[in-house]
């Protein structure tokens, strides 16, 4: 249901970034069910909020937003969704490595990392389900219909998975990184009525 992979690079170049606060729980659009037309700004904010909660709990500065990097991460996530490949090696033309993706976003950096994952379009992670009536109807142990992910539920699931994996945890809690951009792409033909591909790029 959930797979993840991480890469961490140490590179040489300067960067200055502003950090935002850890923020309150995600609400509003972040709680609305996702659709095929993913709200890129909300996904980026929801993922960064969850990462910043983890960083704050560890006594680290929160990561600042970087919209150009979020666009690059979104394009990469969509490329993975289109190709069905969860990988750091590949991407749109001219953006087939983390270094190229950061350069495309105009990010100068001395430390950088990329964390990627897949998740179900429905909120199925860690839940025993049965098929309900209808092609894409899933029933949980309590008999309730399992909904489509929201940006908030997706971010919570993915970041919890990253934090449970030592390499991913080290990547997200690296004190040298100071900004982040994230995005998601949907493969509607993926398992269980859709697979979401997620990419988060960090730099400092």
First and last CA, distance: 31 Å
Report on the biggest sheet.
Answer: 5 strands, mixed
Rounded average pLDDT: 86
- Total of helices: 5
Number of strands: 7
Following the backbone from N to C, one meets helices and strands in this order, namely: EHEHHEEEHHEE
Helix- and strand-based class? alpha+beta
Cα-based radius of gyration, to the nearest Å: 16 Å
Amount of beta strand:
15-25%
Outline of the structure:
This protein is α+β, with helices and mostly antiparallel strands and 204 residues long. The protein contains five helices and seven strands, in the order βαβααβββααββ. β6 (179-187) and β7 form a beta hairpin.
Give an overview in words:
- This protein is globular.
- The chain has 204 residues and is of the alpha+beta class.
- The chain has helices at residues 40-57, 67-83, 98-104, 151-163, 166-172; strands at residues 3-10, 64-65, 111-120, 130-131, 138-139, 179-187, 195-203.
- The strands form 2 sheets. A 5-stranded mixed beta sheet has the order 1-3-7-6-2, with helices on both faces. A two-stranded antiparallel ribbon has the order 4-5.
- The two termini are 31 Å apart.
- Helix content is 30%, strand content 21%.
């Amino acid at each position: 249901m959930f797979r993840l992979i991480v890469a961490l690079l140490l590179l040489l170049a300067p960067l200055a970034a502003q950090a935002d606060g850890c923020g309150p729980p995600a609400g509003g659009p972040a709680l609305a069910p996702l659709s095929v037309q993913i709200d890129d700004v909300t996904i980026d904010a929801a993922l960064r909020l969850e990462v910043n909660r983890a960083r704050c709990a560890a006594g680290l500065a929160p990561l600042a937003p970087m919209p150009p990097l979020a666009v690059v991460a979104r394009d990469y996530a969509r490329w993975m969704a289109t190709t069905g490949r969860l990988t750091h090696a590949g991407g749109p033309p001219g953006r087939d490595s983390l270094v190229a993706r950061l350069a495309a976003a105009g990010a100068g950096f001395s430390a950088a990392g990329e964390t990627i994952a897949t998740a179900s379009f429905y909120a199925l992670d860690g839940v025993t389900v049965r098929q309900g009536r209808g092609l894409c109807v899933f029933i949980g142990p309590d008999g309730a219909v399992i909904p489509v992910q929201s940006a908030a539920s997706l971010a919570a699931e993915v970041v919890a998975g990253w934090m449970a994996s030592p390499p991913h945890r080290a990547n997200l809690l690296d004190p040298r990184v100071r900004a982040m951009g994230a995005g998601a792409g949907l493969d509607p033909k993926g398992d269980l009525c859709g697979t979401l591909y997620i990419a988060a790029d960090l730099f400092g």
